[in-house]
Amino acid sequence: MKAYIIADIEIKNEAEYIKYRDAVPALVQKYGGHYIVRGGNPETLEGSWSPRRIVILEFPDMESLQKFYRSHDYAPLIKQRQAGSDGSMICVQGV
């Protein structure tokens, strides 16, 4: 069953975030993932959520997603992303 990372990101330091943005796609691919949404112009249809930059990654399954997120390869990139942005991130299994 497919699994997804959904992130709402607010870029605080563009130069730092660009380093992360440029480094992470190859790693996502290494773990079988790919981008569904990367940026865009979110529009709130209902409720009070005001997302800034939405990123949605799809992985073949939750095991692949967790291997990516918890990998030694990704650990320094997490710090880099956090240095350049604030945000929230969840993972969820698909239907």
Sheet with the most strands: spatial strand order: 2-3-1-4
Structural class: alpha+beta
Order of helices and strands: EHEEHHE
Would you identify the CATH architecture?
2-Layer Sandwich
Largest pleated sheet:
4 strands, antiparallel
Report the uncertain regions: none
Shape: globular
What is the total domain count?
A: 1
What portion of residues is helical? Answer: 25-40%
Return Rg in Å: 13 Å
Average pLDDT across residues?
A: 95
Strand content: 25-35%
Walk me through this protein's architecture.
The chain has helices at residues 14-30, 62-69, 75-84, and strands at residues 3-11, 34-39, 53-59, 85-93. The chain has a single domain (3-42, 50-93), classed as 2-Layer Sandwich (Alpha-Beta Plaits), CATH 3.30.70.100. The protein is α+β, with helices and mostly antiparallel strands and 95 residues long. It has a 4-stranded antiparallel β-sheet.
Descriptors for this entry?
single chain; Alpha-Beta Plaits; 4-stranded antiparallel beta sheet; 3 helices; 37% helix; globular
Short characterization:
By secondary structure, the protein is of the alpha+beta class. The chain has helices at 14-30, 62-69, 75-84, and strands spanning 3-11, 34-39, 53-59, 85-93.
Question: What's the SSE blueprint?
Answer:
Elements (H helix, E strand, L loop, with lengths): L2 E9 L2 H17 L3 E6 L13 E7 L2 H8 L5 H10 E9 L2
Antiparallel strand pairs: 1-3, 1-4, 2-3
Helix pairs in contact: 1-3
